[in-house]
Amino acid sequence: MAELTVLDEKLAEVLGLAQAAQQATRKVSQLARREGEGELVELLQRMSAEAADTAQRCQQVADEREGLKTAIREKARETKREVAEFMETYLEDAEALDGLEFLSMAEAGELAHWEILDTLNRRARETAVRQLVESVLPIQRRHVNDVRESSLRLAADEDPSEPA
User: Fold this and answer.
1) Using CA atoms, how far apart are residues 77 and 92, in angstroms rounded to an integer?
2) Mean pLDDT score of the chain, rounded to an integer?
3) CA pair distance 68, 19, nearest whole angstrom
4) Cα(79)–Cα(142) distance, rounded to whole angstroms?
């Protein structure tokens, strides 16, 4: 199997994170639905669709990387698996607010990976990667903000004196 460059590895990681984001938003959406948080469910469904689109676009860029398609996919699967394991542990017996706390970490980490890919590509100057990053970074920033605002909204509804 071909050896990945630092840029290829980061591309694989953002692909795996986008794939994991689909699972995470679906899981948190289920928690929100159980609690009657319809507006939050809609937000999470939109985020899941955007993550699916991002994953597809990442895969298209990865498929153009001569001789690296399989290695990138394998690294992406590894990243996705790691996030899924963390999510399973974190969201055991969870409520919607717990789910949003998890998404806060996941989305912030995903944003950081995209910013790192952007920084790496400033030297590599690969057009396909630049175009991908330019289109996804604003979405990722919005995801971080939306999850933060939703978390704070749910937290404001909590009784701080109630037993955890």
Assistant:
1) 22
2) 96
3) 19
4) 22
User: What CATH class has 6-154?
Assistant: mainly alpha
Q: Which of these, 54, 56, 156, 140, lies nearest to 104 by C-alpha position?
A: 140
pLDDT class for 1, splitting at 50, 70, 90? Answer: low
Q: What is the pLDDT of residues 96-122, one digit of tens each?
A: 999 999 999 999 999 999 999 999 999
Say if CB 40 and CB 96 are below 8 A apart. yes
In 5-126, which residue ranges form alpha helices assigned H by DSSP? 6-34, 38-63, 69-90, 96-124
The residue with tokens 């903000």 is: 145
pTM value > 0.85: yes
Residues ≥6 apart with Cβ < 8 Å to 151: 97, 100, 101, 104
Q: Find tokens 């319809």 and name the residue.
A: 38
